[in-house]
Amino acid sequence: MHTSSVLPAVQLAATVALMAWMIIGFTRRPGRWLRWRMFCRATFTVITLTGTKDGHTEPVNVYSYLSPGSFILSPPRLQAIITYLTSTGRYDRIDGHGRVLSARGEQHIKVRDSHVVL
Q1: How far apart are CA 19 and CA 24, in angstroms?
Q2: Which tens digit of pLDDT belongs to each residue from 44-79?
Q3: CA distance 20 to 45
Q4: CA 85 – CA 40 distance, rounded (Å)
């Protein structure tokens, strides 16, 4: 083999190995060797909420109550924000639905009468 044909073969092998490592890194088995621990321990909530006050309903952007730069919202943290919004009198009740993404996969989540239900 010539040097000119060895370099592309090495580059191709390295690219395939890197791609395989990245695909394995996003599989469902958290905490194993070559897994992305950052995603295995985080819990993301994607939810749509509506707040009701004196019979009037409006959308609630729960993400605006997170710390600047934060986007990770777990169900307990969601419940804390909902409790804050209802205890301060901003809303009488909050309802909604969405999904929770975690190491256990994807789950449906509901908020009924200001209580988070998985």
Answers
A1: 9
A2: 889 999 999 999 999 999 989 888 877 788 899 999
A3: 29
A4: 30
